[in-house]
Design goal:
Strand order of the largest sheet: 10-9-8-17-16-15-14-13-12-11
Number of helices: 14
Helix content: 25-40%
Structural class: alpha+beta
Number of domains: 2
Radius of gyration: 25 Å
Strand content: 25-35%
Length: 475
């Protein structure tokens, strides 16, 4: 009897040890500015010397799952311009908010260093571009990440997709068009409640299919078009404009693709942008240049096939490390500037800002890898009622605008970097499929241990409203 009891205890201990080995520690909290108490958005939260991490949302909140094996490692919370917060993972307090204090380097003191260094914003950025081959990966790598795709007007969500993705890139020195691939591994949510009434998109789709240039949306009648045909047109337009491969292999991935023809950060960089040094900040104990991006002599053209995606000027910020000129972060907007683009943007989108992009990079083994991407662009749709009589009430006009004009937001968080060639080979998808819009089954076990982006309080409410009304797919 005693022998059986001892064996039972041993088996129980083995089971408990096994469960503990696979368990994870959940860290969650809110990050705020020490002086103003304002939430700090897009702060980096990560385990030192690993690729395990996340970013804070617009409310300053985050959730991070950390494998138990890293419980004694150091957790770092950092944001450009603030002193970093550090704690052992096991000692992190989920109940007390994290306060970050400002940390600004002296610009005059830095510029008095005897070492010959570029002094102007233009020269610093040119130096950073020159250093890209040294600061970006020179060998093949793979990243695992999380994608949240949102389509909405000013009132509500119309479409929500959440996916786990794989990115493979052979190196910075190779062409992304042929050597960068993206795969959608799993889908967590896919709710679709769009009003399928996009005659503008359908017209563009027919032009593409038939090569007829004289088609006009006003000549088409919605009641004569099958809904299935409109759906095909919308899917086609979504992949053309908001497909993952377009984002990673196109011009807007400006750092990775600085070596492609007519790149935004290519040889004619200063013809399209001007850079002014603003100040020098601190990021996790490293000095970092904060540089203003502004317009130059030429318009910026994206040359998107089948879309007039040209005639812009740039606005934003770029952050470059002082010590090695590695680009840490880009905040970038393209604003309609040519007469044709300003007219088009106003009529179709009710905004002059056509592209908003944030790309944050993290350092791992002395190379910079994309860590967090935010991309926002207005949506070409034709839904809701038009106000034909513009002499009517302004309030009625604004109400229709809130319903009619859409925009799309894509957020990507990379949570793992794989550099080992054998592991890469083993984990490469057999069939690559980058279509984020296809519906797939929900894998509950997969998502239990996968790091995702925490929704903001506003988004969470809109998502709840959408899921109540959507019948397309539910967890």
């Amino acid at each position: 009897m005693r022998s059986s009891y001892i064996k039972y205890l041993l088996r129980l201990a083995v089971v408990c040890f096994g469960l503990n080995g696979f368990s994870q520690i959940e860290l969650k909290n809110k990050i705020v500015d020490f002086n103003t108490l304002v939430p700090i958005e897009s702060a980096s939260i990560y385990v030192k010397n690993t690729t395990i991490g996340t970013v804070s949302n617009s409310d300053g909140k985050f959730v991070l799952l950390i494998p138990n094996e890293f419980k004694n490692d150091t957790l770092i919370i950092s944001s450009i311009g603030y002193k970093s917060f550090k704690s052992a993972v096991i000692e992190f307090d989920n109940t007390a908010e994290i306060y970050l204090e400002e940390d600004i380097a002296s610009l005059d003191e830095i510029l008095l260093v005897a070492e010959a260094r570029p002094k102007t914003g233009n020269d610093i950025v040119l130096k950073a571009i020159e250093k890209l081959p040294a600061n970006l990966p020179e060998m093949p790598y793979m990243q695992k990440g999380f994608l949240r795709h949102k389509e909405r007007n000013k009132k509500e969500f119309k479409w929500l997709i959440e996916s786990a993705i794989t990115l493979y890139d052979s190196s910075y020195n190779s062409s992304s068009a042929y050597n960068l691939k993206v795969n959608v591994d799993e889908v967590r949510k896919s709710y679709d409640l769009r009003d399928v009434d996009s005659l503008l998109t359908y017209t563009a789709y027919l032009k593409y299919k038939s090569n007829k240039g004289n088609l006009r949306a006003k000549n088409l009648r919605r009641d004569t078009i099958k809904t299935s045909s409109l759906v095909k047109a919308i899917k086609w337009n979504d992949n053309r404009i908001n497909g993952l491969e377009n984002l990673f292999t196109g011009k807007l991935n400006m750092v990775r693709n600085a070596n492609i023809k007519n790149a935004l950060f290519g040889e004619n960089l200063l013809d399209k942008h001007q850079f002014d040094l603003d100040t020098i900040l601190v990021d996790n104990d490293r000095k970092i240049y904060k540089i203003k991006i502004s317009e130059s002599s030429n318009f910026i053209n994206l040359d998107t096939k089948g879309v007039f995606n040209d005639g812009y000027i740039a606005n934003g910020w770029i952050y470059i490390y002082w010590d090695n000129y590695a680009i840490k972060k880009i905040e970038y907007e393209l604003i309609a500037a040519s007469n044709a683009q300003k007219s088009r943007s106003k009529a179709l989108f009710d905004t002059q800002i056509n592209h908003k992009l944030v790309i944050n990079y993290s350092a791992y083994q002395e190379k910079m890898y994309p860590n967090y991407i935010y991309y926002e662009t207005p949506k070409l749709v034709n839904v809701g009622s038009k106000v034909e009589d513009r002499k009517g009430a302004i309030g009625e006009l604004e109400q229709h605008k809130d319903e009619r004009y859409y925009y799309t937001v894509q957020e990507i968080l990379f949570t793992e970097i794989i550099l080992d060639a054998i592991q890469i080979e083993e984990r490469l998808p057999k069939h690559w499929d980058s279509d984020i819009f296809s519906i797939r089954p929900y894998n509950k076990d997969f998502w239990k241990n996968y790091n995702t982006l925490l929704e903001s309080e506003e988004d969470e409410k809109l998502i709840q409203d959408l899921t109540k009304r959507s019948a397309l797919f539910k967890e």
